[in-house]
UniProtKB/TrEMBL annotation:
The keyword Transmembrane applies. This is Divergent polysaccharide deacetylase family protein. The chain crosses the membrane at residues 30-50. GO terms for biological process: carbohydrate metabolic process. InterPro entries: Divergent_DAC (IPR006837), Glyco_hydro/deAcase_b/a-brl (IPR011330). Residues 1-18 have a biased composition (Basic and acidic residues). Residues 1-25 are annotated as: Disordered. Keywords: Membrane, Transmembrane, Transmembrane helix. It holds the Pfam family Polysacc_deac_2. It comes from Nitratireductor indicus C115.
Length: 392
């Protein structure tokens, strides 16, 4: 009876305490298990501490994270609307890495750049598969499977319908102060062009890419009036011959990495000579690079050669900061040129403007870029408005 009374008075859900003998037996088993676990942890910790750490030394060249690539390749996301490559191409439904032309209606099906590009956090690191080591230094090269620097290093954009403007600001790397100012003041949508004769180019490339900019490389080419008008060191000239010009081109190409293409610096005479320009275009095609014509020479053969040699191509519509007798552009004149760019973009869907890294240009473009979206225009990287023969 006494035992039964205790059971009745006990709160619901609370079991009777085990006997002292039972508790002692359970505690002994737990102690053995805890002891074995402790020995295992100590053993594993010792093995890890003695093992060489694989990431102790940073690797200067890295490939896009395999996890990202595997995820894209295996999950096969649904088709999305994309507009890239040819500026006049219609927006179409595509799946990653699809590039087959639609049958019958002439619509160009364009690859989704997100399937080939870098993760934004790795944009400052060269893709090892796109680097060729040479006597000149690291050179960009296309992979046998078709991946190109033009694809991988391109900055993404919305793909939305509407007017688009690409602005390219060049001459970076020559002045440390100006280069830093341009990277910090200009929005990431603005494309930056580096001069191969600049200083600390690898550092500035990484800084620009971390800030989100697409970058291109300026190549000095012979103008009319050369050498009185001199673009600088290792200028490509009509009379130098193919071998010397290719050597000078490769020197320029090796100065930085992670760029989508090249742009002529001066070069009115050189770009007008098909025989001199053709080997250059062949080299760019081999290396998977775009060519941007600054648009200052009506005699340039670049567009025809780019089309025949499968080189992505773009040509500037407006020089936004022409310099006068005082050798400095006026902000009011720059704004007029930017207004002209807007008119062209509304008329044909896109426009391209080029300028130099003057303080006046940087400040004016930075202010204008903050306002232009409100007028229904998107600032895009230069790769977004380049015609790509391989996207057909």
């Amino acid at each position: 009876m006494t035992s039964g009374k205790k059971d009745i008075d006990r709160p619901l859900g609370r079991d009777a305490k085990p006997s002292r003998k039972s508790r002692g037996r359970s505690f002994g088993k737990g102690s053995i298990l805890l002891g074995l676990a402790a020995v295992a942890v100590v053993g594993v910790s010792l093995a890890v501490s003695l093992r060489e750490r694989p990431f102790r030394t940073p690797v200067p060249v890295a490939v896009t994270e395999p996890v990202e690539t595997t995820t894209v390749a295996e999950t096969k996301p649904e088709a999305t609307s994309v507009r890239t490559g040819a500026p006049d191409a219609a927006i179409v439904k595509v799946t990653p890495q699809e590039s087959e032309p639609a049958s019958g209606n002439g619509v160009i099906v364009i690859r989704d750049p997100s399937a080939m590009g870098q993760h934004p956090r790795l944009a400052h690191l060269p893709d090892r598969a796109l680097i060729e080591e040479s006597e000149a230094g690291p050179l960009p090269v296309r992979q046998p499977g078709g991946r190109r620097p033009f694809d991988v290093y391109a900055r993404s954009w919305s793909g939305a319908r509407g007017a688009r403007i690409a602005v390219v600001i060049g001459g970076l790397g020559l002045s440390q102060t100006t280069t830093q100012r341009a990277i910090e003041a200009l929005g990431p949508e603005v494309t930056l062009a580096f001069a191969p004769a600049g200083n600390s180019l690898s550092r500035w490339m990484q800084t620009a890419r971390k800030a989100g900019h697409e970058i291109i490389l300026q190549v000095p080419m012979e103008p009319f009036g050369y050498p009185n008008e001199n673009p600088g060191r290792n200028t490509l000239t009509v009379d130098s011959g193919e071998g010397q010009n290719l050597s000078r081109l490769r020197w320029a190409l090796s100065r930085i990495t992670n760029y989508t293409g090249v742009m002529n610096y001066m070069g009115g005479r050189f770009t007008a000579d098909e025989g001199a320009l053709e080997p250059v275009m062949e080299e760019l095609s081999k290396r998977g690079l775009m060519y941007l014509d600054d648009g200052t020479s009506a005699r340039s053969k670049a567009q025809d050669l780019a089309s025949s040699l499968s080189v992505p191509f773009a040509a500037a519509d407006v020089l936004i900061d022409p310099i006068g007798g005082n050798r400095r552009p006026a902000p009011a004149d720059i704004l007029k040129k930017l207004d002209e760019l807007e008119r062209i973009a509304r008329a044909k869907g896109y426009a391209i403007g080029t300028g130099s890294a003057f303080d006046e240009t940087i400040d004016t473009v930075a202010g204008w870029a903050n306002e232009v979206a409100g007028r229904g225009i998107e600032i895009v990287p230069i790769s977004a408005v380049a015609f790509d023969p391989e996207a057909r």
